[in-house]
Structure formats: structure tokens, C-alpha cells
Amino acid sequence: MLPEDLKHRLEAMIIDSETSREKAVDVMFAIQDRFGWMSDERMEEAAGLLRMTPLELDEIATFYDFIYRSPVGKYVIHVCDSVMCMMEGHERVIDHICARTNVTLGGTSPDGLFSLLPVCCIGYCDRAPAMMINKRVYGKLTIEKIDRILDKLIREDGFHPSE
Predict the structure, then answer these.
(1) Which of 6, 63, 91, 141 is 20 to 30 A distant from 122 in Cα terms?
(2) For residue 15, is it within any domain?
(3) pLDDT tens-digit profile of 140-161?
């Protein structure tokens, strides 16, 4: 069940729109921001608020790479696999992230800290290869730059692999 404060915020968002459907993505993002992903139960509640069926809402959710229909890690790493990023070595980026985080492409690390997902484009073609972590974009990736980024996230999280 959605918390009352979130439900009221979503209702206000929907009522300010011309049609409730136009707020479908915004509603799912707001719920996901609170819970980390869109469970079936939350999808049903959102559909009810939007006056849509859960299937109609799920069709929208599965179209967007950034709406998660299953649990994800605290840090969701989207690696761009567009043609430009491919040409600039996105595979070495993926391989290195997999090795550093103990996660496979499409999966979540055993500690729940990282998820690694492909995305067809994040709009950083002039700075390829690129990745996005929790809505922050990084370009011109090198192994060293990736290590600095991951090390910072691990430090901020307080996770110490040696413990």
C-alpha cells in the first residue's frame, strides 16, 4: 500500500494534468524513487490512480529502460551500448564493471550494491563510451575513471570488501 503522503502527492500531480495518462511515467518514477522499483502491487495502485489497467501501465513501463519491474541495487549502472559507444570500447567498460562489482550484465551484485543494465543511448555520443549511475552521466570512460567512480560510491556507502 502506498504511504498517504506519496498517494496525496501523486493525486495532486494527476489532477493538474489534462488527462491522467499523461502522468503515467511521472507517477511510476515517483513511486520508484520511494521504493527502488515498481512491484506488481505498486503497479496496480498506480494504475488505479491513473484510471488505467495494470496491463496498460505495464506496457508503458516495459518500454522505458529506467523503470524497473524487479528489484535493483542501490546503484544502478546503465552502460550505453549504442553504435558510438560500441565503437569506443563499451565492451571493456562492461567487462571491467562486471569484474569490479561482481555482477553480470542484467544482474545485481550479491551484496545488493550494484545493478548493471544496458541502455541503447544516453545522449553522450560525443563523450563515448558512457554510463549513467542513478541519473548521473559519465563520459569518456577509461578503466581508471571507472575505478575512481566506483571507489567513491563504495566509500560513500561505507562498504568495505575486506570486512
Answers:
(1) 6
(2) yes
(3) 999 999 999 999 999 887 754 4
Full domain range(s) for residue 40: 4-63
- pLDDT by residue (tens digit) across 54-99? 999 999 999 998 999 999 999 999 999 999 999 999 999 999 999 9
What's the rounded Cα separation, in Å, for the pair 101 and 146?
A: 11
Q: What is the CATH number of the domain that holds 42?
A: 1.10.10
In contact, 37 and 70? CB cutoff 8 Å: yes
Residue that has been written with the C-alpha cell 553480470 in this structure: 104
Q: Confirm if 126 and 80 have CB atoms less than 8 A apart.
A: no
Kindly state whether residues 83 and 140 are assigned to the same domain: yes
Closest CA to 156 of 59, 38, 74: 74
Which pTM was predicted?
A: 0.86
Rg of the chain's alpha carbons, rounded to an integer? 18
DSSP 8-state class, residue 108:
B
**Where are the extended beta strands (E) located within 19-149?**
75-80, 114-119, 131-133, 136-138
- Coil/strand/helix, residue 118: strand
Q: State how far the Cα of 123 lies from the Cα of 21, in Å rounded to an integer.
A: 26
